[in-house]
Amino acid sequence: MNRAADGDALRRSAETHRVIKGRRWRVSDPALEPELRQALVNALMDARRAVKAALAADDDSALAAARSRVDDAKVALGERGPKWWEPMTDDEESIRLDSRRRALGSVSRSANIADRA
Fold first, then answer.
1. Residues 51, 67: contact at Cβ < 8 Å?
2. What are 5-19's pLDDT values in tens digits?
C-alpha cells in the first residue's frame, strides 16, 4: 500500500471506529437522523438492562431474547452488521431495516421512526 492509501485507511478508521481502553469499537452511522438514533440507543439500553435482569434471574430463554434485542439495536445503529461507510447491497440494507424494525418494535411511537432510512 502506498502512503496515500495508508492515510486514507487511517482517516476512514478514525471516522468509523473509536478506541476505548485499547479496544477498537465501531461507531454508529452518522447518517441516522437524531430522533431515530436516540430511539435506537434507548432500545439498546433497555435491551442491555434486560440482559442484566436475565442474568440475575438465571433465565436462559430471557437472556437469549435480550441478547437478540441488543444485537438488533446494534445492527440498526450500524455498530454491527453491514458496514455503513461502504455501499450496501439491497440485502444488506434489508438486514439493517429489519433490525431497526425489531429493535423499535416494543417502543411506543416508533412505527414512524422504524421506517425511516
1. yes
2. 444 554 556 688 888
> Residue 88 in contact with residue 82, Cβ under 8 Å?
yes
How confident is the model at residue 107, as a pLDDT?
55
Per-residue cell: 102: 425489531
Alpha helices in the chain (DSSP H): 3-16, 34-57, 60-77, 90-104, 111-114
Residue 22: left if φ>0, alpha if ψ -120 to 50, beta else—which one? left
* C-alpha closest to that of 113 among 48, 40, 47: 40
Decide if 80 contacts 74 (C-beta within 8 A): yes
C-alpha torsion angle, residues 88, 92, 96, 99 (rounded to 10): -170
Exposure of 36 in the CB half-sphere (CA atoms within 13 A):
20
Q: Hey, where are the domains in the chain?
A: 29-114
Nearest to 83 by CA among 10, 6, 15: 15
